[in-house]
Amino acid sequence: MARQGRLVRYLPPLAWGRAYDRVTLRHDVVSGLTVGVMIVPQSMAYAALAGLPPVVGLYAATVPLLVYALLGTSGQLAVGPVAISALLTASTVAPLADGDAARYITLAAVLALLVGGIQVALGLVRGGVLVNFLSHAVIVGFTSGAALLIGASQLDTALGVDVEGGQALPGTLAALAGALAGVNWPTFAVTAAGVAILVGVRRVARWVPSALVLVVVATAVSGVFGLDQLGVDTVGDVPAGLPSPSLPVVSGADLLGLLPGAVAIAIISYAEGISVAKALAARSRQRLDPDQELRAIGAANVSAGVFGGFPVAGGFSRSAVAAEAGARTPLSGAVAAGVVVLAVTALTPLLVDLPSAALAAIVLVAVVGLVDAKGARGIARTSPPEGVVLAITFAGTLLLGVELGLAGGVGASIVAFLWRSADPHIAELGRVEGATVLRNVRRWPVRLDPRVALLRVDGALYFASAMRIADAIRGLVADRPALEAVVLDASAISQLDASGAQELEHVAGELAEAGVALHLATVRGPVRDVLARIGPSGHLPEERRHATSEDAIAAVAGPDSPLLRPHPDEPAPEHIQ
Fold first, then answer.
1. For 111-128, what is each residue's pLDDT tens digit?
2. Nearest-5° Cα angle at 204, 201 to 209
């Protein structure tokens, strides 16, 4: 039975296949055909964005989709080339390829293998938690900055100029500025018309695959009017059929050069896919296995490398289309792969006259949705520190490139977290006038007891925050000459480390020398466990650790304390908040 459970976990079709019926098959076929006609032009466009021949995008949209259909747990996630992974592929491979086209293709395939290997390894050790280091602010800042970089990287193709910019926005724009005098206006016209077609079709009939419409129209116009004779770059001959599976071989130095980019793509592509899959699963009430998703997308990337592709991920727009078209199981992805196989084997001769500017238009329109200005404003308004993290990620991505921008965003996010946790909220509590509860003295009119002070710490008591908490206790004692005891309400302290415990013992000793006793109340289980492992305490003995704050106050100041029962006919407080 246990073995069967493991098989179902690693081979989800064993689970959803039991209830598969004709109705589900019909929905999967319709959605698969819909996504298939959408993914063909998108894959070619994203391959061009990655610096690869368009046909490589088709290779990346065949076998990987079949692999994900076998291993994935999301019924709506549409796997294939995506804009962010394509941009990261270009920034990772281009510096190592030195302009060698064949070497570029090989390195891109090796990069897919590395990405897949990292993801599979993380999935086997349940490493999906690493994605949690990518806060929402980092993701919004990175994707918005990357979207602008993607758009800028397509301007040379869109304008028909030949430039070599850097990985960052300033270098790209500077190179473009120097080449504006050589704009090929027929190419620009194709781009403008392409954008108009994409936007127009979406507004008139959202169910129509606008990218496919553009490819058909642009190819036909280019062939009839001979746009290549006017300087418009076209896709040219596209080899038919799928490549034979093989393991690309590169040097150890190349592997080391690809590794940082592979790590970034592995994490980013998984984060993008799992966020989309979770949103769609919540809507359709499906169950996801995040670690199996990591293994599935990793295996898909491995197959992309073996079959001459480049890194893939779950895409938002295609997945949304799949969901709207009624996708029920991962089999819809296999149907979409069949459409791409048909295109690769039978339709490639029709793509000879396809203008590259049309593919650039597809990318330009697609990345507009990645710039989340509304989300950025919401983050900055809700949490200014996260707004700073977002701004650092966004600016770093634009000015330093995608890898350094992402690393800087993650670093800033970690620093912001440590900064916040090192300065936890500390509140003195008093009894609310006319009520039976205790509240923050700065927010409510309360009664206090000059003999005892009640403090609540909202956060972890560890090496970074210990001094801040100890100083707050010292400051309170210095301001209250009549103080006999301080009760530390630990109900909101979820973590205690050795440094925190040592500092707590130290401040308890200082207070004892001043004639003030430190008591603990409402100590959580994990914190009690740490105190138990530390052993007996000279200044915080067991009799100074109380089940509730009321017990501590009564032990120190008696039942008549204003913090408990200011009038004999009033009930005692029921809880601390």
1. 999 999 999 999 998 887
2. 40
**pLDDT tens profile 379-403:** 999 989 899 999 999 999 889 888 7
Give me the residue label for tokens 């009939």: 205
Nearest to 122 by CA among 306, 315, 299: 299
Contact 66, 47 (CB under 8 A): no
Across-strand partners of 452?
449, 485
Rounded to whole angstroms, the maximal C-alpha distance in the chain is 99
Strand partners, 313: 80
Token pair, residue 455, equals 């403090």
Retrieve residue 355's tokens: 């203008």
Residue 336 DSSP SS3: helix
Confidence (pTM): 0.77
User: Tokens representing 474?
Assistant: 């010292």
Q: Which residues contact residue 515 at a Cβ distance below 8 angstroms, ignoring those fewer than 6 apart? A: 484
What is d(CA 28, CA 45) in angstroms, rounded to the nearest whole number? 25
Q: What is the pLDDT of residue 570?
A: 52
Q: What is the pLDDT of residues 236-278, one digit of tens each?
A: 887 888 888 999 989 999 999 999 999 999 988 888 888 778 8
540/403 Cα distance (integer angstroms): 49
533 class by beta-carbon count within 10 Å (0-12 exposed, 13-18 middle, 19+ buried): exposed
In Å, how far are 36, 248, 490, 561 from 565, measured between CA atoms?
A: 72, 78, 22, 6
End-to-end CA distance of the chain: 48
Calpha distance 415→558 (Å, rounded) = 44
Range picked from 115-124, 157-166, 167-176 for highest mean pLDDT: 115-124
Instruction: Please say whether the beta carbons of 359 and 54 come within 8 A.
Output: yes
Angle formed by the axes of helices 2-10 and 290-306, nearest 10°: 60
Residue 15 and residue 288: Cα distance in Å, rounded? 12
| Paired sense of beta strands 575-576 and 313-315, if any | unpaired
State how far the Cα of 292 lies from the Cα of 281, in Å rounded to an integer. 15
Residue 506, CA distances (Å) to 452, 470, 496 in order: 20, 9, 15
Residue from 133, 50, 59 nearest 88 by CA = 50
Helix (H) / strand (E) element for 556: namely helix 549-557
- Counting residues of the chain whose pLDDT is more than 70, the rounded percentage is 92
Considering only CA atoms, which of 538, 480, 490 is closest in space to residue 512? 538
Higher model confidence: residue 521 or residue 208? 521
